[in-house]
Amino acid sequence: MAELTFEINEPLDMHLHLRDADMLKLVGPLTSKTFSGALIMPNLVPPITTKEALLSYKQRIKEACKDDKFEPYVTLFFKNDYSYEFLSDVKNDIIGIKLYPAGITTNSETGVASMDVEVLRPALESMSKLGIPLCIHGETNGFVMDREKEFMPIYESIAKSFPDLKIIMEHITTKDAIELLDKYDNLFATVTLHHLIITLDDVAGGMLNPHLFCKPIAKRPEDRSALLNAALKAHPKLMFGSDSAPHPKHKKECCGCAAGVFTSPIALQVLTELFEKHNALDKLNAFVSLNAQRIYNLSLEKKTIKLVKKDFVVPAIYEYKNENVVPMYAGETISWSIESIN
Amino acid sequence: MAELTFEINEPLDMHLHLRDADMLKLVGPLTSKTFSGALIMPNLVPPITTKEALLSYKQRIKEACKDDKFEPYVTLFFKNDYSYEFLSDVKNDIIGIKLYPAGITTNSETGVASMDVEVLRPALESMSKLGIPLCIHGETNGFVMDREKEFMPIYESIAKSFPDLKIIMEHITTKDAIELLDKYDNLFATVTLHHLIITLDDVAGGMLNPHLFCKPIAKRPEDRSALLNAALKAHPKLMFGSDSAPHPKHKKECCGCAAGVFTSPIALQVLTELFEKHNALDKLNAFVSLNAQRIYNLSLEKKTIKLVKKDFVVPAIYEYKNENVVPMYAGETISWSIESIN
Questions:
Q1: What value, to the nearest 5°, has the Cα angle with vertex B27 and ends B21 and B33?
Q2: How far is CA B62 from the centre of its chain?
Q3: Which of A207, A211, A254 to mutate to test the interface with B (most CBs of B within 10 A)?
Q4: Is A13 a known active-site residue?
Q5: Mind listing the pLDDT tens digit for each residue in A147-160?
Q6: Do the bridges between strand A96-99 and strand A134-136 make them parallel or antiparallel, or are there none, so unpaired?
Q7: Contact, A167 vs A159, CB < 8 A?
Q8: Does pLDDT of A66 surpass 70?
Q9: Domains of chain B
Q10: Nearest residue to B23 via CA among B318, B257, B331
Q11: Closest chain A residue to B209 measured between Cα atoms?
Q12: Among all residues of chain A, which has the CA nearest to that of B143?
């Protein structure tokens, strides 16, 4: 019997955390090997807020990734006081700017304190004029299951106030966000792999599972359904962004575990498994590449990932020097493997 | 300035897990010292299902607790096939029978597979005739935030089918359960200390906190408000039941942590702090003793716990031989201390 195969062309991960130093050297190649490009989030300590830091980080990523066919699209950490001149100067070096409400996730302590449009206006007007997209971690500091829903009016307010600004609702987790996507032309979104698969049940419904604890937290079954349905039909304003976020094993499996799910090395295999299960493989290339190419105006070198329907046992851990990270599905078997990369 | 003091008379903990062996020896005295009695849950491995096991466990509890003024009210683990003769024989040795849907919490694997009233009818009819109360862990196996709410129709169905059966909704966590309390004369409830204080935010809103992970999981702010309001007015059908559930530190602070919050040694101090804060100290004796005495027809020896408004630093851990357990508020300071016990 012939093996079932599937090809993904120029896959893009439009929301990725690569960290720095040895952790970057560990996780960078796990994305660059199988993806054509990734949008790299800037929440290092200190965050990326200068052209110098940006270019230096991009260089470190390229050195760690060692793949000529992989493009790291870097971002700045949003600050209210970025001037038009500064933004104009860095415009060609970045793909967008990432806005974090202060204290909302890992290394976001220096994020913006107020989401009032008037406070944000100067920087957002400059970005709008210069055509720099705004990527937002959209959560309030309310009750954990309501934080994204409560942020919807803020998305609306920014979308209405800056109709020429491309706004990306990052790692959306609710049906509210899916519904909002169709309401404003300038609103787009990324969704992770894990939010297409898990709900709060997987985090805290049986035993507590720190490896699936992330921000925004996985929500209700009806939220997952809305996200999955939009992904499976490759909603034209929705892009794949893994939000793959490595933390060392000891910081996940401890009291007070850090937030983040590490999915980079299994993302394409599991997406293929998921889209095949739902008879939607014909939509996967749009979801994982074409939508992002169109939304961000990207042109990419050809890179073809050939997957085959064959068991793949996910490694229990990935290690480099003193760093390590446990992937989603550690030790479990998934039904698709990567056969070749060209 | 005179110190602020408060007296609690004959406190009762109407839902308590004491485990067995060295863990029993560690946690038993932490309840018996300050309480007049406690309803002890039967979910050991194997569960308590025979008169012999029941009497033997009660004896081990008495030996571990070493306090003549403490009464352990023991319970049987519900089984569909208990005969009238058997129940009639154990009636005077137990305070009630605890029903667990299979697989719903720690050591509940051998619980009942179906909550269909007709399946439960023979045993429940016998209990009803004999006047044996039914204590229920009321959760379905649905989405974690909905499990208790989804169980409400099952409570209703049992309450309607057996109007003479006293039914206790154990460790309620939702406003739905509070509302149901007033709908059927034969429905009662216990509520824990921690569910009066925490929401899901405290478990998974910041970092993941395994020490506050429990079943049923802490719910939404409006649920906590409903529970707290009912406790503060000492709703006559609501009793204090800590559901204090010790697990060794390594089973809490690990990947896949066990469910349960350990509150026995701090329960009376924190309840006093909470009721004082809400100007409801005049209701605390009803909530923590009188309601249970009336609902279960208990007569108790006099035991007075005198508390004083003075800082108490909660121990980081309690230990005995190879067993240990981390209490809620470990290492933190609470504003009331126990001054004397008479």
A1: 125
A2: 19
A3: A207
A4: no
A5: 999 999 999 999 99
A6: parallel
A7: yes
A8: yes
A9: 5-341 (3.20.20.140)
A10: B318
A11: A256
A12: A201
